[in-house]
């Protein structure tokens, strides 16, 4: 199964870049019919993870994927599952 991995460690402090990359990876998954996107906001204080989750719950983004899974073994990972 193909998946896309987006690591946000390099751009954690640039809000516009985070939104741009999240939009890009969601669009790429839809376009290429990829079933899983792994987003790595990292552990840190949890603020970046909260930002990613807020982004993913926007209605126009939420319509594009099936479900979100927070990794219970690694706090710093989020899986976005698609049903094409």
Give a concise summary.
Helix content is 38%, strand content 21%. It is built from three helices and four strands.
Gap from first CA to last CA: 13 Å
Question: What share of residues is helical?
Answer: 25-40%
* Domains, number: 1
Report the CATH architecture: 2-Layer Sandwich
Given helix and strand content, the structural type is alpha+beta
Beta-strand level of the residues, as a percent range? 15-25%
* Overall average pLDDT: 93
Major sheet description: 4 strands, mixed
Radius of gyration over C-alpha positions, nearest whole angstrom:
12 Å
Q: What is the CATH level 1 assignment?
A: Alpha Beta
H/E series, N to C? EHEHHEE
Q: Tell how many strands the DSSP assignment holds.
A: 4
Low-confidence stretches: none
Label the overall shape: globular
Q: What is the tally of helical segments?
A: 3
Structure description:
The protein is of the alpha+beta class and 84 residues long. It has helices at 15-32, 47-56, 59-62, and strands spanning 3-7, 36-40, 67-70, 78-81. A four-stranded mixed beta sheet has the order 1-2-4-3, covered by helices on one side. The radius of gyration is 12 Å and the shape is globular. The model has no long low-confidence stretch (mean pLDDT 93).
List the helices and strands and how they pair.
Elements: E1 3-7, H1 15-32, E2 36-40, H2 47-56, H3 59-62, E3 67-70, E4 78-81
Parallel strand pairs: 1-2
Antiparallel strand pairs: 2-4, 3-4
């Amino acid at each position: 199964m193909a998946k896309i991995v987006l690591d946000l460690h390099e751009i954690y402090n640039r809000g516009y870049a985070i939104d741009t990359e999240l939009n890009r990876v969601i669009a790429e998954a839809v376009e290429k019919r990829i079933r899983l996107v792994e987003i790595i906001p990292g552990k840190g204080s949890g603020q970046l993870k909260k930002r990613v989750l807020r982004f993913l719950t926007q209605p126009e983004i939420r319509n594009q994927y099936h479900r979100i899974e927070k990794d219970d073994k690694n706090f710093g990972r989020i899986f976005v599952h698609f049903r094409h």
